[in-house]
Amino acid sequence: MTYAKILYTGLVAGLITAASEAAATSAWRDSVDLPASVGGSVQAQLRQGWLHAWRANAEGQEVWHTILGRVDQPGRVGRVEKTTPFTVVVSHPDGQTYVQDETNRNRLSGHRQALVDEPFPGLETAVGDSVVQLQSTFRSAEKPSTHLTRWQRDHWIWAGSGPTQSQLHTVVRFAPILTIPQRKTLEKPTADQAILQWDRAEFTDDGQTFSVRYISSREKEVMHQRHAVEKGAVPFEMDIERWLQPVAGYEESPLNSLGQLQGKVVLLDFWATWCQPCIAKLPYIADMYERYRDQGFVVISLHSAWRADELDDFVGQHDYAFPIALDTGETFRRYGLDPGGPIPHYILIDRDNRIALVNDLPTEEQIKALLQAGS
User: Of 23, 18, 12, which is closest to residue 46 (Cα–Cα)?
Assistant: First the structure.
């Protein structure tokens, strides 16, 4: 074999080896299963040279997803390992970049590469209403910008972090939409971090190091069971299928949170067209609404998701001015009501977003007292 042929053969073999290593690296993927009591798995994969890590629940739905950084050298891949029965760490081959999920404590933390220094693929999100968009922004002359953004999807608040509002490198299913937050979101960041809070959940990020305390599905159910629907309690949030008559001022962008009505006195009326006692009370509700709407009284008439076929015709035949919505069934469930009753059921909420009356239809004197107390 001539020297030229040997050189050519060696070069081809080298190219084939390099191509094989690159293909193997780009196709690399690993995962570990979580204990049965938690369910699902933590997974990692190289996608076009970027190390992705995410957690999926037992149904295959993502709970969180982050891009840790670029992997430049062929043959170098990440590592997924269970350090305790409930703790999983995904490590980048650079030895410094990682993400750790303590699944029994609902805590996610990690350290990314400085992804804003170069274009990165970003994570796709199904962003919902504009009301729950950008909440806190960190900008510093010493560090890149970090935006924390939240949105609403599938009965959950999601949170994302990235150098811009649309370019996200971390997305977390943050907290369930159960109650109006008892703590306001921090609008002002600290000196070196962006901070986002929603009920018991918290997300802090300085652009590279991040820490998240999120709410799991299991904790959501515990929260639901423990949350009493009683006087003084924070009301459960609504989940609306569609508005037939929107709340005044929300015609273009429908109301999606009771928190938007803070400062108002709100009556939630759980009813249905097939419920004769419900229909019998509607004229009184309409009268109270007309009398006190200008003083801050709001009615939200929530029709049951069960047997709602006649709702549109009923609304078209009656000249009720108060807001009417079709429930998904989730609001009824949160308040302990079956789709078929027992209704009517009423929840009166004061100006501070606290339950003032449960079950009974409020009297005119009770409505007036709440309006006067917060005026």
Answer: 23
Q: Which residue has the higher pLDDT, 32 or 117?
A: 32
- 286 — phi, psi (to 5°)? -65, -40
185, 197 in Cβ contact below 8 A? yes
- 42 or 146, higher pLDDT: 42
Q: At what angle do helices 364-373 and 276-292 cross, to 10 degrees?
A: 40
What CA dihedral angle connects 162, 167, 170 and 174, to 10 degrees? Answer: 90
Q: Cα–Cα distance between 309 and 318 in angstroms, integer?
A: 16
Give the model's confidence band at 4: pLDDT under 50 very low, under 70 low, under 90 confident, else very high: very low
All structural domains of the chain: 25-221 (no CATH), 229-373 (3.40.30.10)
Q: Is 280 helix (H, G, I), strand (E, B) or coil?
A: helix
* pTM over cut 0.90: no
Q: Is 21 within 8 Å of 74 (Cβ atoms)?
A: yes
DSSP alpha helices (H): ranges in the chain?
A: 3-26, 217-226, 276-292, 311-317, 330-334, 364-373
| Type of residue at 42 | V
Task: List 94's β-bridge partners, or say none.
Answer: none
Contact between 244 and 326 under an 8 Å Cβ cutoff? The reply is yes
- Give bridge partners of residue 155 from the DSSP assignment: none
Cα 233 to Cα 179: distance, rounded to the nearest angstrom: 10
For residue 337, the tally of other CB atoms under 10 A from its CB is 19
pLDDT band at 11; cut points 50, 70, 90? very low
Q: Has residue 152 got a pLDDT over 90?
A: no
The C-alpha angle 56, 108, 215, rounded to 5 degrees, equals 70
Burial class (CB within 10 angstroms; exposed 0-12, middle 13-18, buried 19+) of 205? buried
